[in-house]
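2 proteins. here.
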Amino acid sequence: MNKVVVGFDFSSGSAYAVDLAIDIANRWQSDIRLVYVKEKDEDEAPIRAEIERRNAGVAHLLKGIKLEYVLREGKPADELCAQALADNAELLIVGTHGMSGMKKSLLGRNSYKTIEQSPVPVLIVREDFNFSKQLEKIIVPIDSSDDTRQKAAKAAMFAKSFDATIHLLGLYTSTTADIRNIVNNYVKFVERYFDKAEVKYITKYLEVEKNVTLTTLDYAKEVNADLIAIMTEQESRLTSLLMGSYAQQMINESTVPVLTVRPANVLADTAKH
């Protein structure tokens, strides 16, 4: 059985991540692995006692799956990614604080590194998200970058699990006919994929006035979305960074969970080294 791996550090953000992980893992019938990355001289006994106490408190929510934990020592991003790889995880979930504490808390340097290095999709969950709302609407932005379609499979998996509707968002970042045709063709490709997967979807095309992130976030707010699926290299030709500037902006500013997927070619290149 594959696993859903969750970064855990006793913060409220990571506690919310556990709650969402239980919901997802129940639907996927995947076991859950909590990962606490401790400091070198940190006493393990109280850590284990508190995690076990918390796990016992949510045991009644588990539907035929296991909730386990492991303590690791090292750099948080390295250890989370190593555990996700060791567990053949389907998903890595990281919780964050709200907007005011985002950059200086868990979603700081370590979380960006986690997203960049992770061999599996990463779901970023903010503590100020309305968890009482059912996951009903998933935004899948499609631009002209080569890898933009690769997020479709994981988005479809979420949509099927939650009986959600995908909002397929074609984003025109240029008035050039060739670029717009690329977007049109990519959207049609994803539509065919969703049709075959029997996923409910709505297609919308928008002109990008500022950047793809702000356009996507505005639309997500307009439709009251519950999840946004992006690539770590959204419009990758505009930046040389793996964790592109638009992806970083999306993670910093989105008030709903963000699912990040690394391009397959980047994963393949990483595996060679």
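next one coming up
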Amino acid sequence: MGRPRKRTFGAATLIASALACSGTIEGTVSVVTGDEVDVFSRAPAAVTLVAEKIALDGTRAEIARAELPVDSIRLGAQQRTEVGALAISGLDAAGQVVVRGETLLVQWGALENTTLEVFVQRTGELARLPRGPAAFEPEIAMTVSGRFILAANGAATMLYDLLALKPLASPPQLPRPARSLASFGTALLVIDDEGATTFDLSDAASYPLDAPPGGTFGEIAGGATVTAPDGTQYVVGATRASGGPTARVLVIDPEGSRSFAALAAPREGACAAFVPGRGLIVVGGDGAAAGAELLAPTAALAAPLPFPPDPVKGCGAAALDSAHLAVVGGGDGPVRVLDLACTSDCAPAPWPDTLPLARADVHALAPDVAFIVGDDAAGDTHAYRATAAGVREIPLRVARRGARLVPTAIGAPTVVGGAAGIEQYLD
């Protein structure tokens, strides 16, 4: 009932107040469907709810089962100090999963005095999360601490808590208008053309930050932040839509140390993604240089890859696996897959169907599946599920403009901004 996923114990976890207590508890969770009303009743109707415990290594074990209709489920005796996530699946009469949902990490002892809500939705479609935020026009959207969706427009922010399933009533004002953001726990690195400031979301403390040798914050302001599996973050100036071509990349290691690296060619409007086992790949944004280049994890200078020049701007990119990168957007065209194992005279391989997206964000759901959110030439947002067999548009629950795709800690892509609420997709 979903692919195993290794879990990371961190700030996203709901912790019990008395960590020293041992023994077991009998927890109960509430099953909620957000703004959708026919989640269980629509044909094929769900008739059984199954609760599974997900360990930190991604393994699953069934812990409860109940026949619908119910709006809560008892978890049975669980060890207080154990940490895990909870998955709820709704099965139809044939035993097929038609409804599902998953929590962030919790410590089971915390459920003794707290009712945890589990958001569930129909599979294969978008659904609105509970108590969604008011309409917001994000210039940047990301997850913070694995628990919060943060959207920023200038110094204004929106924060939605994926564990409590509600927005913060009084989101903070940033110390400077954000053109780029990186995060470490609850602390943000807020970057604009004039400089950078660290800002702690927990207490609003802020401190100005000097640029490391070899570059300026103005050279990367407006660039997207790409995160590697080890927590290293890359603020890629070449991905900015305006501000001029730049080759500068700010590299922030998992301990917070900062340094500058450089691309082989200045670019503007490019797209970037981290490919495990290889490094940061930057595509497009220049009609004369190599179509893509690779910045290896320890390198200070990127190396061109043997792909033809690609002037595309406004594209999105995502690693499908350790050897393939999906690129889409920047104008009418198909999803294009770069084979990174190719060594000479390489060319992207197109998937079927054309997507009319002037700007796009991409998230890989599987090695052969990409979820795409982007805007057409008129600025209207669309969502798609794409595979090598073709593209299926996933209808948005509400019309949006300029929305952003933000993957969450459970691997679920969300659509944020451009209208009230947040929409989540689960296969």
